[in-house]
Structures are given as C-alpha cells and as structure tokens.
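ENTRY TYPE: paired fold submission
RECORD: A
CONTENT: sequence, then structure tokens
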Amino acid sequence: MTQQVAFVLLDHSATPDLVVVAEAICRRHPAIPASASWAGQTSGNSPLLLCDGEIVAVMSLIAPLPRDEGLLVRASASWPEVRAVFERHSAHLVVSILGAKGGQLRIARVITAVVGGLIAATPGALGVVWGSKVAHPADRWMKMSEGAFVPYPDFPVSLWISIHPFSDELTGGGGAITQGLTAFVGRELELIGAAEKLIPLLERAQGLATYLAQNGPVLKDGSTFGVSETEHIAVRLCMSERFPGMAVLHAKITSRVGGGDNLIDLGTAAGATPPAVMSGSAPRLFAGASPRPDAIGKWVAVGRSLFLTLIKWSAITLLALILLGEFLKAYKHARLLGNSTPRADLYALESIGVPLGIAVGLLVLSRVRSARRRAKTTRRSNE
C-alpha cells in the first residue's frame, strides 16, 4: 500500500503558523485534540504538530507541484478549473504523518483534518491533491473535510478516492474504475456492467470503495458483495485487462443473481452520491476516453474480430500459395532429375518442408488461441 500524503496548492509561498493551524483544527473538530506545542516544541515555526495522537509533518516548498496530465484529466470531471489552478499556483505544502500508529483510514482522517485547518489558517490556498490520484478545489475540501472523523459510511471518502466511468471495448458495455483505493487495500476497484446502467454501477463502486476504506483488504479472490441479501457479485483479484499494469478488484455486474459465500452487504453505503457526478457535473470517461453508446461498441468489437479473422486467413492463404509454388518447383526439378533419384526426393523435402512447417505451426497456434478465448468467455459468463 502506498503512503498517504496531501499537497496543498498555494498561489504564493507561505510558511503556515502551526499554532494557528492547531487552533483551527480544534475549532473545526472540537472532540479531536491538536497542538503545535508539545515535546519541547513551543513555536509555530516548527514543521510538526500533534493531531489525535499522530505526529503530522507540514513542509513548505517554494515551487509548483509537478504537472500530471492524467490527474488533470481525471480531476476536470468535477473541477473544470483544475488546469487553470495548476498554471496559477507557484508553491505548495506537503502534509504527511510520521510513524503512524493507526490504520490507513485513521491516517486519512488525520491528514484530512490537518489540511482543512491549513486551508482555514493559510490565505492563498487554491486546491488539494491527494497522493497523485485525486484533486479538489480548496473550498470543496474545506467543506467536506469537516466530516473527517464522522462514522461510516458518511466520512468524505471522495476526497481520497475518485471513481471514473469508462466505455468497455471488451464487452461493449460500461465500467467504473477507482483511483486512490490502492492506499487502503493495495488495489483499485474495476466494475463492469451494462452501459445503460452507468449510474447504478457508479453507486455500487462508491458503496464498495467506502466499505473497503473502512474495513481494509477484506475481499479475497472469489468473495461476493451486494446491496442486498439476494445480490451476490463475485470478485476476482487480478491485473486489469483494460488498464495495463494496474492491480484490481474486478467484478462484473449482471442482472443474474448468483449464490456465493462470504457475502458483504453494502447496505445504505451504496446509495451515496458517486464522486464522479457530484456538484452537478455529468459523468466523464476515465483518462479522456470518448463516450461510445452500447450498440456502437458492439459493432466496433464485431468489426475488430472480422478484421483479425481476415488477417489470419490472408496469412494462411499466402502460405498455401507459397507451399504450392514450392511443390510445383520441386515437381519440375524431380522430372528433370528423374523421379527415382535420391537427390530428387531430398530436394522435394527441402523445398516444401519449411513452408509446410510454418503453416502447421500457425494452424496449431490459431487453435490454441481459440481455445483460450473460449475458456476466458466461459469463465466470465460464470462470474
């Protein structure tokens, strides 16, 4: 799991007074102790403060945060001004915990509370980047961070984990992928379903992401979850076939209700508003992919399959023609040298052996790939 860290974007360089920040934290969260005067620290110029028993480091850097195009694309779905803010900011603060005593959710709660206090006490805060995955404007963070310590499922999970819809070319449907869940469970969440049921898909992703942020990596390969006792959706732990190099919790949402053990009932958590559609913004596709209606996606998949089949049979036809030409050449030389001479037989074998071997190899490879595709299709249909 990755270390959790937050970056506060500033329009000018500033070194916050952590005594003032601690006071702001205490005002915003009266039940949570926070102080910058502890263990011999008596000045607000110290880079450390104590919040809910955790030592939090705040580092001021006189340089803009490096630009991440993927982050900007993802964040623009709910924060259209994100690019302008990145162009404008000239400094940033780095907030992290030293020697954390609690789990990942506790770390996220404490950092969130501290960042809220920093924004309240530091003029010029423009926005917050969580890790390298999620970005929000400062005013939204100020409001949502007030719930940093509220119980499950109402804590501000969308400050830490974003959910993005995408068009799934493998199935012709739609999907949802998280960004930021890795810090809590070591993997992202990838849900696949029908394109016309995108909002329910996002709601399930939101509910499951919230549950996992609360409980950690409790889902094992083959575990099931659902929003009721009758809905059992199986989960696979695997590498994503859609986003190379990304370890995911993969699940396919279908109308069929199946049985399963180890059911996780998400309950009311699945009814929360998906982060991708909050603040009245319409869902946008992950990493800038273009929207594709379900029917068009299916025709694209069919066209791609026909194109690959055409290439395969064109190659086989070409090899067959080469094989026929070599055979005729061998036959001509055999007639010239005499049908029964050993030299004629050897030449014939040499002429047709190589192309014949290539043709047989391609045929076997084609059969193996077809068998693997059938096995994969069968496995997906059983999920």
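RECORD: B
CONTENT: sequence, then structure tokens
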Amino acid sequence: MLYIINAIAIHGEQPIMNRIKLIQGYDEKKTKDTLELVLRQRKNEFRELANALKIPTNAPEWEIIILKFCLDFENCFEIWTGREQPDQNKTNKCMTIMRVIAQGGKSVTEIAHVQTTANTIYNEFHNIYKRI
C-alpha cells in the first residue's frame, strides 16, 4: 500500500498530463493516447487491479496509477527472471510491489491472478505504444 499511497500523496491532484510524467521513459502524449486505447479494451482489468490494490476508482486519474504499477511490476519481473540486474532501489521497489499485491490476496492463486492481470495490461500497453 505504501507504493500506491506515496504515488497519490506526493503527486496530489495533478492534471492528467502531469500525472503521466510519473511514467518515465515514455513520450507523454503518446503515453496518454496509448492509455486511452488500452482503457477501451481493458477497462475491466484496470478496475480489477484497482480493487485488488485498494485504489479507489473515483480517485483522479486512478488509471494512470494502475498503468504505472503495471509498468513497475514488469520491471520487477525482468529483475526476477535475471534479464535485468537489480540495484538496492529496484530491489526495495520490487519487494514493496509484492507486498502490495500480497496484502489483498487470500491465496497464491489470487496473487498470481493479480500478477497476470498486471502483465496483460503491460503487454497491451506496449503493443499499442509501438504502433502509435
């Protein structure tokens, strides 16, 4: 929960283009356009993740927080599989992400479902982002 709460508390009630700046390494306009397209196809998955992570869907730009979470989760997956080398900050961030995911889960299956959903959103985002 610390991961999500910090993203909301630090960045407050910012307009969408400012909150999109949280997603580093991507073009802001292209990211916004891609997010809008992904939401057309994956709105239910976004809501499901928001529910699992206890992010209110009436919060401003909650979709961007979910997208950021999915991108960060995928970065952690790269570290866990040895495709990327961890440093202390990345290791701490990954542990925080896993704690956030696990807090809402009642079983390993539920936790794996949240991870799979985050991965699905990540893949959908990247596929569309490449085409725009």
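NOTES ON RECORD B: Helices lie at 2-11, 16-19, 28-52, 62-80, 88-104, 108-131. DSSP finds six helices and no strands in the chain.
STATUS: closed
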